[in-house]
Amino acid sequence: MDIEDFGIPRDPVIEHYKKDVDRTLIRENLKLSVEERLVKLQEHLEFADADLLAGGEFEGDGAGLPGVVGPCGDPVAGGGHRVEAVGLAL
C-alpha cells in the first residue's frame, strides 16, 4: 500500500529528504524490543561520557546536551547519564 492509495498527496519536501535517509537502520532498530533499545541507548550514552572524559566535545552551547531536555524542560547535563524504565533493570 502507498500513501497515495488513501488520497493523500506526497509532500515534496519529505520526499526530498527521504532519499538521504538510510531506512535499513530504522527497520533494524524497530526489530529490537523496548528493553534492547534502552540498553543500546545506555551503551551510546556511556560511550559519549567516555568521549567527553577523553577530551571530546559535543557541539552545543555548553549548557548540556544539545536539544535534550529533562522532564522539567531543563537541559540535560553531559555526564552521568542513566536510562531507567519502570519494571526494567538495566
Q: How would you describe this structure in keywords?
A:
90 residues; mainly alpha; 3 helices; elongated
Short description:
With 90 residues, the protein is mostly helical.
Give a verbal description of the structure.
The longest helix is centred in the middle third of the chain and has 20 residues, at 34-53. This protein has helices at residues 12-18, 23-30, 34-53. By secondary structure, the chain is mainly α. It contains three helices and no strands. The protein has one domain. 39% of the residues lie in helices and 0% in strands. The model is unreliable at 60-65 (pLDDT under 50).
Task: Assign the structural class, choosing from mainly alpha, mainly beta, alpha/beta, alpha+beta, or little secondary structure.
Answer: mainly alpha
Q: What is the distance, rounded to the nearest whole angstrom, between the alpha carbons of the first and last residues?
A: 38 Å
Q: Please provide the ordered H/E string of secondary-structure elements.
A: HHH
Strand content: under 5%
How many β-strand runs? 0
Compute the number of structural domains. Answer: 1
